[in-house]
TrEMBL record:
This is Sugar kinase. Belongs to the ROK (NagC/XylR) family. Gene3D superfamilies: 3.30.420.40, Winged helix-like DNA-binding domain superfamily/Winged helix DNA-binding domain. InterPro entries: ATPase_NBD (IPR043129), ROK (IPR000600), ROK_cs (IPR049874), WH-like_DNA-bd_sf (IPR036388), WH_DNA-bd_sf (IPR036390). Pfam families: ROK. Signal peptide: none annotated. The keyword Manganese does not apply. It comes from the Bacteria. One of its GO terms (molecular function) is kinase activity. Keywords: Kinase, Transferase.
Length: 401
């Protein structure tokens, strides 16, 4: 790796994490020579990534100039694709959402229709034609999908519920369409990343549970996303479910959309919730019925509340095992069902504190997503910004010549 690129990334990282700094602050934090720091600052100022932030108060000598990361030096487009809908956003380089759009569209329609909808959303977001200094405004595009992702290649791999997506080159589609850096990841990974960044500093271990149309999880270990060998880490929805009441004699285990039977998602996912709330629905109708099931739950329907609490306890059994195995400091619960009140969350807490190892739950916090519906798009934007400003990406943002 080029040492110059590493130095630029290190200096810019100080401003991104610590706020405004003087030259002396940068020298003290990095140990670089003053001449080297001056070169790095000039390069970042020329690229528009830093801007002046005024001067320190005078202490009798020359006032020290302060600099800050300029989050308005470009824009990011992100698309958080779920099983039954998508959320797109225009963000600044700090991950702040500037504008957003949503649409209900099942991911099972396939990559071309869903990505066409994403492109139409992006075209309607208020992206400036040019950035500061006349350069391109768009710096990168990131997409998340509800299935395992081969992260380096940017494509879905054997996704259980994403008909037609297996091996589709999502990152290639983005690069051809927009000509910028492209990032593709699993939807719950980016939610976990966003919630980790939004939480208190120093928390390096977090477990994210998404309860939406399906069930998934993301794992932050030592401050990094744990992806697994094939990108399938955290697929908690397809573990065997431990039911609070054994099925009646002769009853068949619930069939899951992954093709297996008895999965957690087959009893506690949104489509399973809709199946049990509206008996008689055909399998393909359960996903489309999720919004109506959620409306009933929000309205206080007693049957819906009872089913949601049962789902929470089933989820709690799976999360309890994850807590004992991974020992996270925080469990975050997000997704559509986590935003309908405490019904699911209460069931999860009840079982996790009863079933997990006492040491693992001694200081454990179980909370709803702090970023609400935006966990995914904010996590995407922050992850994309990290990629852009890493040593391997930052050289592409500097002026040529």
């Amino acid at each position: 790796m080029d040492s110059g690129a590493e130095g630029l990334a290190q200096v810019l990282g100080l401003f991104r994490t610590r706020g405004s700094q003087t030259r002396a602050d940068v020298i003290a934090a990095t140990g670089m020579a003053r001449s080297t720091v001056n070169q790095r600052l000039e390069a970042l100022l020329s690229a528009g990534l830093l801007c002046s932030a005024g001067e320190n108060a005078s202490t009798g000598g020359r006032r020290a100039e302060r600099f800050a990361f300029d989050a308005d030096a470009g824009r990011l487009l992100v698309a958080d694709i779920g099983a039954s809908g998508l959320r797109t956003a225009l963000c600044d380089l700090g991950g702040r959402v500037l504008a957003e759009r949503t649409e209900e569209i099942p991911v099972t329609r396939g990559p071309e229709p869903v990505l066409k909808a994403v492109d139409e959303h992006f075209a309607r977001l208020p992206l400036p034609r040019t950035g500061p200094g006349g350069g391109p405004a768009l710096r990168g595009v990131a997409v998340s999908v509800p299935g395992p992702v081969e992260f380096e290649a940017g494509r879905a791999v054997s996704p259980p519920i994403m008909l037609g997506w297996d091996g589709f080159d999502i990152a290639g589609h983005v690069r051809r369409r927009y000509g910028v850096t492209a990032l593709v990841d699993n939807d719950v990974n980016v939610m976990a990343f966003g919630e980790h960044r939004a939480g208190p500093p120093g928390v390096g271990h977090l477990f994210m549970l998404k309860v939406g149309t399906g069930v998934g999880s993301g794992i932050i270990a030592d401050g990094r996303i744990l992806r697994g060998a094939q990108g399938a880490a955290g697929d908690i929805g397809h573990l065997p479910a431990r039911l609070e009441e054994p099925p009646s004699p002769g009853a068949e285990p619930a069939l899951c959309r992954c093709g297996n039977v008895g999965c957690v998602e087959a009893y506690a996912g949104g489509w399973a919730f809709a199946r049990d709330l509206f008996p008689g629905l055909a399998d393909e109708e359960t996903v489309n019925a999720v919004p109506e099931a959620l409306r009933l739950l929000r309205s206080g329907d007693h049957h819906a509340i009872r089913l949601a609490r049962r789902s929470g306890r089933i989820l709690g059994e799976a999360v309890a095992g994850a807590v004992s195995l991974l020992n996270p400091a925080v469990v975050v619960v997000g997704g559509q069902f986590a935003l309908t009140g405490e019904h699911v969350l209460t069931g999860i807490r009840e079982v996790v504190y009863r079933r997990s190892l006492p040491l693992a739950t001694r200081s454990l916090v179980i909370r709803p997503a702090a970023l609400g519906k935006r966990s995914g798009v904010i996590g995407l934007a922050q992850q994309l910004a990290d990629a852009l400003f890493a040593p391997s990406g930052i050289a592409e943002l500097l002026p040529r010549g």
